[in-house]
Each structure stands twice: as C-alpha cells, then as structure tokens.
Design goal:
single chain, 308 residues, alpha+beta, CBS domain Like, 2 domains, six-stranded antiparallel beta sheet, 14 strands
Length: 308
C-alpha cells in the first residue's frame, strides 16, 4: 500500500480547508500554519509553553472561523486565575489571524518544571473558555461561554461545542518549533471533525461517528506539523479506505489591525491630563501594540494635547 494522495494545487502551509469523507455524516476542517504562526509567536518573547498555548488558540480560531458564512470575526479566548491570565486569538473573514497572551513569567516557570509541557488548564487555572462572533457594528455580538474543562485546549473546545452548541466534536491541535535548515521556526496545525445529526433519510449516525472518532484519534502531532506531509496526504492516511476529499483551501496570514489612526483614536479617549503624562522626554507619545509589538510614535497634537 502506498502513502500517496491524489495530486492537486492545494498549498502546504498557511491554509484552512474543509474536507468530506465520502458518504459519511461527518464534516471536517484542517488548518496548517507556517510563516503566519511564526510571525504571531515571534512578535513577543514568550516562554515555550505560553507560545504553544497561543499557537493552539490561533489554530483553533482559524479552524472554527474559516467555516463561518458571514463577513466578520471569530474571537477565541480563555482566561483564568493561573500563570497565564488570558489568551486571545481572532480570525477574520479575510483569513487574517492575530493573537496575544498575558502571563506571569515566574508563575509560568514554576508550572513548567515537569518533563512534559504544561497544558491549558495548568496554565490558565480555573476560568472560562469563550467564543465570540462579531459581524460588525450593525449586529449584536454572539458569545458562548463554558468553564475550562480538560487539561488541553482541544478538550476545552470539545467541551464548548458539546455544552454550547450540542454538536459532538473532536479537535486536535499541535504547535512546535521545526528546523528546516534555517533555524527553528514555529509551526502549528489543527484538525476538527463534527457529527452531522441523523434524520429520516440518514437514520442514526452514531455508529459512523464512533468509527470517525477512532480514526481521528490516530492523528499524531508530528503529522500536523511536518511541512513534508501535504494536507491531502495527511487526510489520505486517516481516511483512505473510505475516501476523503479536501475542498478548496482558504489562505491564512498574520495581519494585525492596528494602525496609527486607531492608536490615535484610542488616545483621544483618555483625559488630556492623562495624555499629557504619556509624553516622553523627546516630546513624543509612544504606544506599543500588544498583538504585533509595533511601536507607534504619535505627535501630542495629533492626540489632542494642546501646547503648554
């Protein structure tokens, strides 16, 4: 038996795509992140466990967000009382992702003394897992909130879908640094399958779902991360006996929405005395974007600070 899938022009990296198993009442999605996730994680000096958690959150946001049928954003976040205060990632309908983590470095180091990488629950502690759909200023946000359950972010996401959406779901997320000869660079991958409910035509879908789960559990982290394994080959390994079709891929990119105009608008929401206190010795106001670490130099007059 060969390990080859049919050839197609699907890219290897920075993509999100749906897949179908022929004749099965199961829908799936696959995400592969290379340069995009390296840009997000390299923007800050994150400890390895924190970077991994943020990478998983970005992959999850792309997995779920790329299935949405409207223009807007999906925001995935988790917050708790652990070493990582919160992690947030968002995906917009243009395929843009960004993310950020706030954490206590000493507490993260203390939680990372074991032989294995600490998981989401260890890092976040007791808290909540949140998904928010934002269709823009003309629509109300839709938000689902569940407690953080399970040690991994994958388990927290599965619990969310089971409790909030009543959809049986399996999620696999992987993040790691891979060296292809130019030094280690971050990579991430994710896969998700969901059961389609039975009806009069389909009958019960439970048996097929159990088979899908069993096959899905064989998916290994290195398969999600290895740039030499194409998305088609990965899915062919999982479901080749039953036939699997990868649909058109959506490209993904690390793009932050920050800009000088946005920063200036935020500054004007502060009182003038507060803005005046922000002026540094050289007469500039400097603001660093917490997502991408871009530093903006703003003239005080642009922020509405009058001369002394």
């Amino acid at each position: 038996m060969t390990d080859h899938a049919p050839l197609s022009p699907v890219p290897v990296d920075d993509l999100a795509a749906a897949f179908q198993i022929e004749g099965w009442p199961v829908r799936g999605r696959l995400v592969r992140l290379g340069d995009a996730i390296d840009a997000v994680l390299s923007a800050h000096d994150y400890p390895e466990p924190v970077a991994a958690l943020l990478g998983e959150t970005c992959a999850l946001a792309a997995l779920v967000g790329s299935s949405l049928k409207f223009e807007g954003r999906l925001i995935v976040q988790a917050q708790g009382d652990g070493p990582v205060r919160y992690v947030v990632a968002d995906y917009d309908s243009q395929g843009h992702i960004r993310g950020y983590c706030r954490f206590d470095a000493e507490e993260v180091a203390a939680a990372s003394t074991g032989f294995s990488r600490p998981g989401a629950q260890t890092l976040l502690g007791k808290g909540v897992f949140v998904m928010t759909l934002d269709q823009g200023p003309d629509f109300e946000r839709h938000q689902g909130i569940t407690p953080i359950e399970g040690e991994s972010l994958s388990l927290a996401a599965e619990h969310y879908f089971r409790q909030s959406e009543q959809v049986p779901t399996k999620v696999r997320l992987a993040v790691g640094a891979v060296d292809q000869g130019a030094g280690p660079r971050w990579r991430a991958g994710g896969a998700m399958i969901q059961m389609v409910a039975g009806d009069a035509a389909r009958g019960s879908t439970e048996e097929v779902w159990e088979r899908s789960e069993a096959l899905f559990q064989t998916l290994a982290d290195d398969e999600l991360l290895d740039p030499q394994i194409t998305p088609e080959t990965l899915l062919f390994r999982l479901f080749h006996e039953d036939g699997v079709r990868l649909e058109q891929a959506r490209p993904l990119a690390a793009v932050c929405r920050c800009s000088a105009d946005r920063i200036t608008s935020v500054l004007t929401s502060f009182g003038e005395d507060e803005r005046r206190e922000m002026i540094e010795d050289d007469g500039k106001i400097r603001v660093t974007c917490e997502y991408c670490s871009t530093v903006y130099e703003i003239e005080p007059a642009a922020a509405g600070v009058g001369s002394l």
